[in-house]
Amino acid sequence: MARATARYYGGRDPFGRAGDFTTAPEISQSFGECLGLWAAVCWQMMGAPDPVLLVELGPGRGTLMADALRAIREVIPAFAAAARLQLVETSPTLRAAQRRSLGAAAADTCWHDGIDTLPPGPAILLANEFLDALPIRQFERAGGRWRERWVEDGRFLLRDAEDAPPEDASLPDGTVQERCEPALAITAALARRLAGEGGVALFIDYGTAQGGTGDSLQAVRRHAPVDPLRDPGEADLTAHVDFAAVAHAAAAAGAATHGPLSQGMFLRRIGIGQRAAMLAQANPRQGAAHMAALHRLTASEAMGELFQVLAISHPGFPLPPGFANA
Fold first, then answer.
1. Single GO molecular-function term (predicted)?
2. Which pLDDT value is given to residue 108?
3. pLDDT tens sequence across 192-223
4. Cβ contacts of residue 96 below 8 Å, gap of 6+?
5. Strands 137-142 and 176-179, how do they pair?
6. Could you give the CA distance from residue 198 to residue 194 in angstroms, rounded to a whole number?
7. Which residue of 54, 66, 106, 308 could cross-link 83, Cys pair, CB 3.0 to 4.6 Å?
């Protein structure tokens, strides 16, 4: 999965109608604008450090960050002046798209292949649909024990694995359990950094709040599901994020965790409904489209319940906006 994912993202722009899938920033500008203002409020809660790193993992076309910066400059320009933009992106194609989206801001932006080269200092980090694209391992119960799924010649095989999940005799054969070790490693590394240098990170992705079992590996090409084992590197491979495991990794590394809570609840709490209404009022011809986008992002039958939101922060950081009673 790791090699197929690297090949897939390495030389294409997969977003939007002409690509394979559409993410929240491409659905509505209000998504990125509200996240930008969320980051600005967090900066104020940190004591307004200057400079501060504003980081995005997997920035796509740069749409989210461009929308966020526009809102930040308009509402809290001091944060825009203090922010040092850092984008973690390995794809040359997507880096070029991000430069186009950011315009003049690209001149002061630093790109990174991974989080290990981020400069020191307090940071505010955004990651929308980043963790789901990281490679997973799958284990299947067979003959009353766990065995690891392995891909060979375009099909799944089973093999013994020393680091299989703990035995659970209550689970029937055929049960699948997934583990995303890169997601846990990245989360733990960020948690150690935030605990040591200050700041907060926000993860938004589709997944489960409580973990569990099940096969969530899926592939999408041209907005339709396809066989994940067919044509490696030609489709978007993803799996649901186990937010309980991610939160546990962050807490074990010394950070505070907040959530997860549903995307719909989080976005409504930080004001996306009011922002969508403002956009609709300012441009009545596009009013229905703005409200339809709001519904898609927040409704329980759309993305509102499927997507979860988790924040991790320095242990002394106050409760982040949107997470009251989470």
1. methyltransferase activity
2. 96
3. 999 999 999 999 999 999 888 999 999 887 76
4. none
5. antiparallel
6. 5
7. 54
203 within 8 A of 186, measured Cβ to Cβ: no
Tell me the pTM.
0.91
Whether omega before 14 lies within 30 degrees of 0, making that bond cis, reads no
Query: What residues form DSSP beta bridges with 142?
Result: 145
Closest CA to 116 of 57, 63, 69: 57
Phi, psi at 17, each rounded to 5°? -60, -35
| Cα 180 from chain centroid (whole Å) | 14
Please tell me the distance from the alpha carbon of residue 83 to that of residue 110, in angstroms, as a whole number: 12
The residues pairing with 159 across neighbouring beta strands, listed in sequence order, are 148
86 token code pair: 């850092």
Within 13 Å and on the Cβ side, how many CA atoms surround 169? 0
Domain with CATH 3.40.50.12710 in the chain: 9-133+180-313
